[in-house]
Design a protein that fits this description.
This protein has 314 residues and is α/β, with parallel strands linked by helices. The chain is 43% helix and 15% strand. It has one domain: NADP-dependent oxidoreductase domain (TIM Barrel, Alpha-Beta Barrel), CATH 3.20.20. The chain has twelve helices and ten strands.
């Protein structure tokens, strides 16, 4: 495993992170399997474990807290997120100071830890002033409940606004953004987000680097019955297209030439840029995370990147 700083900041994360959206309490409910997945990840060098309060409405955090309690806390980088509604209560959502403060306490209880290394604003909340958002997250850093904070899926303009407000007022700025980024979903990150985060010294920890499994080749012949994407109309309609299927199938020759799977090739491509600190992946079986970890050993030279770009641009 290789490790990278998050942007210009001191904390180091494994290039591959294990995310909770798939692994903890949603697609995988067998605690024995979850423990096996985490054991393979940890022994393979993964130190970054990502979560959100909304994943399985708290169950994702609870399961992760139970499993990670078996490992020394100082060896882990644990994160969670706040924004999405957690109940029908009008204040149990968004980025108000009230909801942020109550949510961090709930996440810490669920995760069985005294602090989070990273805490993300899961979306931008246009109903709350930037002053309230930044002072609230900065206050959590001062309190010791959070070590660093970041944004997730924020518009670039609002990321820049948060960084500027923190700088102008002596507050802790966001150090990281968590956007969706893959071979098949790249334009917004490369053309809008990176031009803001790079000058600010922020890192990116990206989600869905395998495009919901499309880049693994599992949908070469269409959508299998029971596939995860079958329950998500938006992702399915955007990702499983004839054009994307042709690109993914064409990538197989490049992957084969590197003695890699297409999943490993896709992860190596995401990690080709130092703007990305980590790629967040899920796993439903131990062998999946083992395969994922091996992607960090794949080097893409200029020729390979050029061939990939010719396929993606087609």
């Amino acid at each position: 495993m290789k490790y990278r700083n998050i942007g210009k900041w001191g904390i180091k994360v494994s290039e591959i992170a294990l995310g909770a959206w798939t692994t903890y309490g949603d697609s995988v409910e067998d605690l024995t399997v979850i423990k096996q997945i985490v054991r393979v990840a940890y022994e393979g060098g993964v130190n970054f474990f990502d979560n959100a309060d909304v994943y399985a409405i708290g169950k994702g955090e609870q399961v992760m807290g139970m499993v990670l309690a078996d490992y020394p806390r100082h060896t882990l980088v644990m994160s969670s997120k706040v924004y999405w509604p957690m109940s029908d209560d009008i204040n149990d959502r968004g980025l108000s100071r009230k909801h942020i403060r109550e949510s961090i306490d709930g996440s810490l209880r669920n995760l069985k830890t005294d602090y989070l290394d990273l805490y993300f604003a899961h979306r931008h909340d246009p109903s709350v002033p930037m002053e309230e958002i930044v002072t609230s997250f900065s206050g959590l850093v001062d309190s010791g409940k959070v070590t660093y904070w970041g944004t997730s899926e924020w518009p670039a303009e609002q990321i820049a606004e948060a960084v500027a407000f923190a700088s102008e007022n002596g507050l802790h700025p966001p150090i990281v953004d968590q956007p969706q980024y893959s071979m098949l979903h790249r334009d917004r990150v490369e053309n809008e987000v990176m031009p803001v985060t790079n000058p600010a010294g922020m890192g990116l920890v990206v989600w869905s680097p395998l495009a919901m499994g499309m880049l693994t080749g599992k949908y070469d012949e269409g959508l299998p019955e029971g596939a995860r994407l079958s329950d998500n109309d938006g992702f399915r309609e955007r990702i499983i297209t004839d054009a994307n299927r042709a690109k993914v199938m064409a990538l197989k020759e490049i992957a084969d030439g590197l003695h890699a799977t297409r999943a490993q090739l896709a992860l190596a491509w995401v990690l080709r840029t130092k703007s990305v600190s980590a790629a967040i992946t899920g796993a439903t079986r131990p062998d999946q995370i083992a395969e994922t970890i091996e992607a960090t050993s794949i080097h893409l030279n200029d020729e390979a990147v050029s061939r990939i770009e010719s396929i993606l641009g087609g």
